[in-house]
Task: structure prediction
Amino acid sequence: MKKTKIVVIGSGAVGATTAYTLMIRNRTDELVLIDANHSKAAGDALDINHGIPFLGTTKLWAGTYEDCKDADIIVITAGAAQREGEPRTELLKRNAMIMDSILTEVVKYNTDGILLLASNPVDVMSYFAWSKTGWPVNRVIGSGTLLDSARFRYLIGNHLNIDPRSVHAHIIGEHGDSELPVWSLANVAGIPLEIEEEHKEDIFSNTVNAAYKIISAKGATYYAIALALDRICTAILKDEGAVLNVSTLLNDYHGISDVYLGVPCIVDRSGVRNVLRLDLSKDELALLKRSADKLKELNATVSR
Result:
């Protein structure tokens, strides 16, 4: 059988933690770390490799863009760090330049893998990557609102004293300030949630502001997003057909087109196999369209 291979570009907090997560869960046969600071990537690789006797047989090394050849998944986490109090969208111009240089190198060595982006603002960077590479849309995926939905489910579970894994609830739209909660479809075992409006507001506020709170406390977020990226990689490599709230190009999704947004998608070995159309309330649909309009404006800025 062909060996599986994941390349992680960016050995900062998110990239290194993602590589560590993939390693301890033994997700792939080969794992490569690439960073502009090769010494940092080499140090992370060496540090993680010292734990192999406790783990398994994954081969991990710090490489170059040539190692993207034959990679099943290329995870891009590289980018300028988000500063305390800084909206993700303000990272746009700096990260677009970084993304452009990365993609130029990636496509020299790989044209049939899957790009998985986590660099912020992730929806705009995903649209940019799709436009830049010309790859089929199903093979250019953003981490989207998968992490936001996990935060949402965690907070709902805490409020109801129910295992978050048993909570079915979605955050959709931008991975950022214009994201929205789909309260109309949130449920436990098919039973709609009975939560007072005041508590709903608190839960969503803590969801949308989670990253700012964590960055204020310790400078960066990386554990949960690493687990989210690991979840997406697993769905791809194991051909699961899992429903995950990733960012993908929408085509007449409730009238929304030509923009990357986080919505529930079926993810398998082909990437995004299908986009699931949620039955949204009138208010939720209005908020989703507002989120789409915001991102379209940002996409236009990058393409100029």
Notes: Residues 86 and 212 are 8 Å apart (CA to CA). DSSP finds nine helices and 14 strands in the chain.
